[in-house]
Amino acid sequence: MSETSPEYLSRSLGKPSFLETLKSWIFTTDHKRIGILYIVFAFIFFAVGGALAGLIRVQLATPEGTLITGSTFNGMVGMHGTIMIFLWVMPVMTGIINYIMPLQIGAKDMVFPRANSLGLWLFIGGGIILMMTFFFGMPQAGWTAYVPLSLVKSDIGMDIWIIGIQLLGISSIISGLNFLVTIIKLRAPGMTMFKVPLFVWSTMVTGWLLVLAMPALTVGLGAVLLERHLDVSFFNSANGGDPLLYQHLFWFFGHPEVYILIMPGFGIISEIIPAHARKPIFGYKPMAFSMIAIAFISFLLWVHHMFSSGMDPVATIPFSILTMIIGVPTGIKIFNWLATLWKGKIHFEPAMLFALGFIITFTIGGLTGVMLAVVPVDLHVTDTYFVVGHMHYVMFGGSVMAIYGGICHWFPKVTGRMLTKPLAHAHFWLTFIGLNLTFLPMHWLGFFGMQRRIDTYADAPQFTDGNVAATIGGLVMGLGALALLINIIYSIKKGALAGNNPWRAKSFEWETTSPPPPHNFDVQPVMTGLPYAYGEDAAASASAATGGSADGGAADGSAATTGADSETSTKSKNAKGKNNG
Amino acid sequence: MLIFVKRIQSMPARIAFAILQLLAVPVIAFSQETELVPIAAGQYAERVDDLMVLLLGVSAFFFVLILGLMIVFIVKFRARKQSGDGAPIRGNHTLEIVWTTIPLILMAVLAGLSASLIFEQYNPPEETLIVKVNAFAFDWEFEYYEAVPAGTGFAEFVGFICGNPQTFVHIRKLNVKTSKELLIPANRPVRFLISSEDVLHSFWVPEYRIKRDAVPNYVSDVWFEASKLGTFRIICAELCGVSHSTMIGALKVIPTQEFDSWMTEQLAVASLSDNI
Q1: Does B210 reach chain A within 8 Å, measured CB to CB?
Q2: Is the peptide bond before A515 cis (omega within 30 degrees of 0)?
Q3: Are residues A229 and B152 in contact, defined by beta-carbon separation less than 8 angstroms?
Q4: What's the pLDDT score for residue A96?
Q5: Helices A90-104, A198-230: crossing angle, 10 deg rounding
Q6: Which residues fall within 8 angstroms of residue A47, CB to CB, at 6 or more apart?
Q7: pLDDT band at A312 (very low <50, low <70, confident <90, very high)
Q8: Would the pTM of this model clear 0.90, i.e. be above it?
């Protein structure tokens, strides 16, 4: 760990120069610093993607919109999707995983620290290349880059875009492998696979998805690049190629990709809810197995993006059924989170608000997903604003809500300071209200006949009001993100000191200092009991003291309903109070 | 919006839909003034709407259940003091089985309903008017064909066939072509053979609840029987380039006699120009 020496030196020799600090960050192989860099760069790209979204919404606030039109608009729609997926949600999740996962398994670092650094710089390089398209012309075929539109040779932005995405793909594969091997090889003594926190399970599953899904995109886009420049014909139907082949390759990546984006979110929510409801996660194994099931099935339903492609309708049926089936493990997760709340002691910290908001908005996204699985309904609403609404409920109401929650949850660990509560509450409410105001009307717009990726709806002015609502909602969400930014900048210097474990949470990352030292733990943590041991040590000591009187459901229920004296209603609860007080 | 509710027959579905509507208060507020919902212009479209209403009902049930449980739990089990933990409950097998099986059964029912509608629409009737839809950046062109009984006529090559090849029977070109505007008769099944001359497009008539991509050198096959007269928008639903937003055609559904006389007239013009 050579990169740690400048930091140790600087500790003993006084403040390092700016150049030294910069160098130590650029060449760092410390998973925590790499994680922070991922998150910082992801936020920069998030601002760019958000600005594009804002411009798109302003354009669509009037039917005749004249702000941005034609190729600029099409380019911006594609770049908004590309940035939000590849340069915001994926890297920010990778950053959170990078920082938290090794701490949670009691490891000193990732198993391949240098590969980790390579992954980071490939991401930043790929991101910068994608930003070039703003100067050389944005790609015209949307984030899906469907052929034959993406084969138009004059569209130089498409070449730049493909190269950028290929680098990001390699970066993701490296990260995925690193996650997998780290979890398999570096878990603390006593920490078997069914004792890791669920965030680690979600990382494991994300790793598999990255390693298995990204190559399909790499191959598909590689073939597009070859066809654009070498006159080969994979996709050009005039020369015997098949345009649908590209769609198959793309969505074989693209559907697991959706779960790459949401899976770490599942993990984050599974950490937040037990910590702030003061209860073990309900159904640990069903939660872990449902993630595995989702990952497995996610490779078998890519065709549901292609129901309208003209394929034999009978061939759509198995994919329709599998798409519905993936809703079952997703439902299992929702119900287990709800059951975790049951009989908890819920603290409404900002992270918990985001987790509760996530359950609402992600449920909406999941339910509209089941609607889209029904082929005749899909054939009407696919490629419309219904899908845009659905997909944003999953991506924003799911992934981004989880990211925001994760930031609120782990900010004290990373910085050693607490976020400022009023700002965090503003952040939550603006985001939650804004996202519903933006994305809910889109379902109606789509069902009523508004197709997606359009810069004007002058011939259908009845869509104005829904679009105005969406534009206002977008502004509100933007203010929410601004509140987060202000909160981070303010709290990083002025926030209350957090201490090691402000949430009294049970996973390993809270046992070390905030922020953790470069080697993470002064003493190697050892896993002795079960994960999420909320209330259990207290219950154990109580049963030892009182001869094991288990608190029955009725007693507990009445205690909770009668109010403030719940602590004294049973002996075991009394002991709990003492133990934690 | 209200118009849409009126068309829904069953009471639980109406209630469920009304609850869902509440979720979009701003949408309701304005939609009562304008007629937003595309009418269902045929029996198939009505069937799709029924399915949609059922889905909305099921979704509303689960959403209200999840939201309701959440609200009850967070009110009832909110922490009143800083100290104390919740009950150390780690799970319940029966509950896991319940919330795995019930959705599975529901999904099976939905899949069955979905598949039955697909199969119903799978084979077009033998006697149909056939319209070849040529999409190109950024407009539509429509060529009329007629079906001829198998064995009597000759198959005309129109491209690689997506969809259901068995149903692709013998057709004869009628030498009638229109652009931008498509005239079809009411109460007679029309088959659309959709193709593209350049990039991908998608043929969407919201009032029919059908959408099929137009793929160059391939033909997508879809059919519909219109029951309502009127002019509807033909929308390109697949990003196709700079003017994708304005690639909108018009579909005019006219009475059968009117259509027949129009067709006779067009055929006469076509044969006249052939003779010249």
Answers
A1: yes
A2: yes
A3: no
A4: 97
A5: 140
A6: none
A7: confident
A8: no
Q: Measuring CA to CA, how many Å separate A249 from each of A296, A349, A533, B7?
A: 17, 43, 44, 41
Nearest to B218 by CA among B133, B110, B98: B133
Q: How confident is the model over A219-246, as pLDDT tens digits?
A: 999 999 999 999 898 998 888 889 999 9
Asked if the model's pLDDT at residue A538 lies above 60, the reply is no
Question: What is the pairing mode between strands B230-236 and B248-254?
Answer: antiparallel
E strands in B89-216: 129-136, 139-147, 160-161, 171-179, 181-185, 189-196, 201-205, 210-214
Chain A residues within 8 A of B85 when measuring between CB atoms: 278-279, 345, 534-535, 538, 576, 580
| SS3 of residue A497 by DSSP | strand
| Burial call A533-550: b when 16+ CB within 10 Å, e when fewer | bbbbbbbbebbeeeeeee
**In the structure, what pLDDT confidence band is assigned to residue A261 with cuts at 50, 70 and 90?**
very high
Report how far residue A103's alpha carbon sits from residue A187's, in angstroms, rounded to the nearest whole number: 10
| Helices A385-394 and A350-373, axial angle in degrees (round to 10) | 140
Residue of A377, A433, A437, A566 to mutate, testing the B interface (most B Cβ within 10 Å of its Cβ):
A377
A17 min Cα distance to partner chain B (Å): 44
Peptide bond into A531 cis (omega under 30): no
CB B185 within 8 A of CB B255: yes
Provide the 3-class DSSP secondary structure of residue A194: helix
Cα(A565)–Cα(A67) distance, rounded to whole angstroms? 61
State the complex-level ipTM.
0.87
Instruction: Calculate the alpha carbon distances from B13 to A440, B52, B60, B105, B179 in Å.
Output: 20, 10, 10, 19, 41
